[in-house]
UniProtKB/TrEMBL annotation:
The lineage of its organism: Bacteria, Pseudomonadati, Pseudomonadota, Betaproteobacteria, Burkholderiales. It comes from the Bacteria. Residues 25-616 form the SecA family profile domain. It holds the Pfam family P-loop_SecA. This is Protein translocase subunit SecA. It comes from Ramlibacter agri. Keywords: ATP-binding, Cell inner membrane, Cell membrane, Cytoplasm, Membrane, Nucleotide-binding, Protein transport, Translocase, Translocation, Transport. Gene3D superfamilies: P-loop containing nucleotide triphosphate hydrolases, SecA, preprotein cross-linking domain. Residues 115-301 form the Helicase ATP-binding domain. GO terms for cellular component: cell envelope Sec protein transport complex; cytosol; plasma membrane. GO terms for biological process: intracellular protein transport; protein import; protein targeting; protein transport by the Sec complex.
Length: 660
């Protein structure tokens, strides 16, 4: 920690991601205690002690309770190094935060919420069933982290949830003596700095990483306290100050989405650079690819759908027309790269799936969340190629100033924790990559969500007709329906057919993001039909209207399986929350992209069997989906593992270059 001046807040240097968390002995001991469940038993004992102390604290007068909070907060911070389960400071702190929750929010934390908050404060990833009150558990853990006097970042799935959660929990934070704010993309630097100056800052992962990279550019890469002092001695900070106080503790809501699904996604800080030659070449390439035929002049790699390769015939054809390109782009490697970008824009990137066009601009759609990313652009000329394909004015290509993946960024936090309803199957990766242990908590009440129903159809049109018919039937019964899709175009196609069938429905996708709060607020009403992309997945809480639970609860219809079963469960988890009844059905097409891209070759005969023998489809569908998702996740895990190894190698090379 560094204090540069009396006016400047303390700054906390990021940890070196290439170095393991703690000594080898400490890690082995922590893992052994976890596997033997000794840590869990100790935490459960701590929670029971806190619950016993809770009633007496709840009866204190307001003034006495505030004085007690201040005293507990001081003791908690002073005993930071010696804090372990069973210490009175920890028991008192946990009970005090729970009592503050009851006073300010009118909610008494349940045993799973107590345990989740304590585990997250101790650096665990916690799996809580949907509807178990993850928002409150995260807030309780954030208070305990903030009482340490170090910056605590709460990472949410989107800005809407960041703003909502910080306002919901503000009474709790105020009583506990913690300042809190959310960081938004449209904020000015002064506003962002004020938000990061709070004890607890809510933000999305892209916002945190973007601000971190901008600060690093401002600091000239200075990360250690000594480097920052040298930066100041050389005149740094005279005109502009970093907005962050450094990185220390992060609590990630929907931890698997950030640490696994988006791990390899790089965030790039870039500045536009005028390049008239590239603009001319991009327009010419757009005209040239219209004469090219797929599987004749080029092939699209089915494994990733982001790899175009010219065939020998295509290379020969391109050599014959290369004179139409500007001279700089006539060189073999350059012209092939240019044409590849144009082909990707035509054959791979789909409008209303990967991007939308708004006000004459190409706006990227985040496939994981279904939300717009207005200030992002694709690199390597892809963005300009898509603009040319859409006949829009081309933006200037960008020059990269800083780049980092979310995996690399979150490994820089000293204390990392989080929560999610879908951590199954990724415990080993969380431990090996981030040093995060996983704690799975049983729900307070048994789930009444009915799942497992799969309906299989030979074509997309058949599947569309079937899902519209099922949504119409449920609508007539007076139950709310949530139809989940992966693409904007699918959500609009289903909505169009529902309207044609006389069923009124609401559509929630990236084009309707301004109406999100209103649509979600009514989605649990009787006979309400909502068609949504992944915007209605992670973090969305659909409250049931009076009488709906008794009638059967929210009915979820999934139009297409995702590459990860965890994402499917995020959609299903919108129903059956907190023991309420519900039902989730999956609609599968034999031509779905999941099968085209990821089904292992050895399993393809079973897909052909399902296509030819309708009676076998229901039995084969679960195995086909499992095989495709297994292969997709295996590929993703391999990419993340390779990335981690490459980043460690780069860090090691940089350390040698500094020594030299």
């Amino acid at each position: 920690m560094e204090r540069s001046s009396a006016a400047a807040p303390p700054w906390f240097a990021p940890r070196d991601p290439a170095r393991p968390r703690g000594s080898l002995g400490w890690r082995l001991n922590r893992l052994a205690r976890h596997l033997a469940r000794r840590d869990r038993v100790a935490m459960e004992r701590e929670v029971r002690a806190a619950q016993e102390a809770f009633p007496a604290l709840a009866e204190l007068e307001e003034g006495a309770f505030r004085a007690h909070v201040a005293q507990v907060r001081r003791a908690y911070r002073l005993k930071r190094a010696q804090r372990t389960p069973g210490q009175p400071e920890l028991t008192s702190a946990l009970a005090t935060v729970a009592a503050a929750t009851k006073r300010t929010l009118g909610m008494t934390p349940s045993f799973p919420q107590f345990l989740a908050a304590l585990a997250m404060a101790d650096g665990y990833a916690v799996q809580l069933a949907p509807g178990e009150g993850k928002t409150l558990a995260v807030a309780m853990a954030a208070v305990l982290q903030a009482w340490d006097g170090r910056p605590c970042h709460v990472v949410t799935a989107n800005e809407y949830l960041a703003a909502r959660d910080v306002e919901l929990m503000r009474p709790l934070y105020d009583l506990c003596g913690c300042s809190a704010a959310s960081v938004k993309q449209e904020m000015q630097r002064e506003e962002s700095a004020a938000a990061y100056g709070c004890d607890i800052a809510y933000a999305t992962a892209p916002q945190l990483l973007a601000d971190f990279l901008r600060d690093q550019l401002l600091l000239g890469g200075a990360q250690t306290p000594v480097q920052r002092r040298l930066w100041r001695l050389n005149g740094g900070g005279a005109a502009m100050q970093p907005v962050m106080r450094g990185v220390y503790a992060a609590i990630i809501d929907e931890a698997d989405g950030v640490l696994i699904d988006e791990a390899t996604t790089p965030l790039i800080i870039a500045s536009p650079q005028s390049n008239p030659l590239m603009v001319k070449a991009t327009h010419e390439a757009r005209a040239l690819v219209d004469a090219m035929e797929r599987d004749v002049h080029y092939t699209v790699h089915q494994g990733s759908h982001h790899d175009v390769r010219l065939t020998p015939e295509g290379e020969q054809w391109l050599a014959g027309v290369a004179h139409r390109l500007p001279e700089f782009w006539q060189q073999e490697d350059r012209r092939e790269n240019l044409l590849s970008m144009a082909l990707l824009a035509r054959d791979v990137f789909e409008r209303d799936r990967h991007y939308v066009v708004q006000e004459g601009r190409v706006v990227i759609v985040d496939e994981n969340t279904g939300r717009l990313m207005p200030d992002r652009s694709w690199s390597h000329g892809i963005h300009q190629a898509i603009e040319a394909r859409e006949s829009l004015e081309l933006t200037d290509p960008s020059q990269t100033a800083a780049r980092m993946t979310f995996q690399d960024f979150f490994r820089r936090y000293h204390v990392l924790s989080g929560a999610s309803g879908t951590l199954q199957g990724i415990g080993h990766e969380l431990w090996s990559t981030y040093g995060l242990l996983t704690l799975r908590l049983a729900p307070r009440v048994p789930s009444r969500l009915r799942t497992g129903e799969r309906h299989v159809y030979p074509s997309r049109d058949d599947k569309l007709d079937a899902i519209v018919a099922e949504a119409s039937r449920i609508h007539r019964e007076g139950l709310p329906v949530l139809v989940g899709t992966r693409r904007i175009l699918d959500s609009e196609a289903i909505a169009e057919r529902l309207l044609a069938a006389g069923v009124d429905c609401k559509v929630l996708n990236a084009k309707k993001h301004a109406e999100e709060a209103e649509i979600v607020a009514h989605a649990g009403g009787p006979d309400c039909v909502t068609v949504a992309t992944n915007m209605a997945g992670r973090g969305t809480d659909i409250l049931l209207a009076a009488g709906v639970a008794d009638a059967g609860g929210l009915q979820v219809l999934s139009f297409e399986a995702h590459e990860s079963a965890r994402v499917d469960w995020q959609l299903f988890g919108r129903s059956g929350r907190q023991g309420a009844p519900g039902r989730a059905q999956a609609f599968i097409g034999l031509g779905d992209e999941l099968f085209e891209r990821h089904l292992p070759a050895v399993v393809l005969p079973f897909l052909w069997l399902a296509a030819g023998v309708p009676a076998s489809r229901t039995r084969l569908a679960p195995a086909l989906v499992w095989a495709a998702q297994w292969r997709a996740q295996r590929r993703s895990w391999s990419a993340r593992k390779t990335l981690a190894e490459r980043e460690a190698q780069v860090m090691q090379q940089l350390s040698f270059s500094r020594i030299g």
